[in-house]
Amino acid sequence: MSLIRSESLNKIYHTGNEEIQVLRDINLDFEQGKIYIITGESGSGKSTLLNLIGGIDNPSSGSIWFRDQDITHLNEDALTRFRMDFIGFIFQFHFLLKDFSAIENVMMPALIAQQPMAAAKTKASKLLAEVGLSHRENHYLTQLSGGERQRVALARALMNDPPVIIADEPTGNLDEGNTRLVEDVLFSLVTKLSKTLIMVTHNSHFKTDQYTHYQLDGGRLSQL
Length: 224
Prior knowledge:
Layout: E1 2-15, E2 18-31, E3 35-39, H1 46-53, E4 61-66, E5 69-70, H2 76-86, E6 87-90, H3 102-112, H4 117-130, H5 146-157, E7 164-168, H6 176-192, E8 196-201, E9 212-217, E10 220-223
Parallel strand pairs: 3-8, 3-9, 6-7, 7-8
Antiparallel strand pairs: 1-2, 1-4, 4-5, 9-10
Helix pairs in contact: 3-4, 3-5, 4-5, 5-6
């Protein structure tokens, strides 16, 4: 059963008199609990596509459906609630708050959603254990390595128990060793929790028999 689907999705940017079409007639169908990898050259529109799926940006035409709701017709307040309840984001840069500890950063989405402090702290601690960082709960940004920061960001993305995790080049700033570690933790955890993972990446070492693999080229999406 479809969790997310798009119909004839297009995105056009206007710069002066120039019209740049980044995405062309994208039709996709993502199911619950599966992993989707999207690759493509830099500037191919991968991040734009994720922003549309995640309700951060609006398409020029076409529609995006989450279950039975067309999110392209939601107002900004409804989109904010949609993102808070249903989408967990992981970006190339971790966007952790430097004045807060690891566990406080993980708790943040729950606190914004006005969940009880004690319950949020308990869940954040469990998530940090899941990503192998129990011993770093009270460490601050300057005390964490790049790979550790991204694992904290992963735990934060899972805090409100969203059905979908959107990852935009989550290992783009990491060395090979940390890339493999973060990917292994990410894939094993979303599988364990039956999350839908949609990830864009430059890496090409993924096997298509393990994950559904798409390529974005010339604004068009094709399955490999």
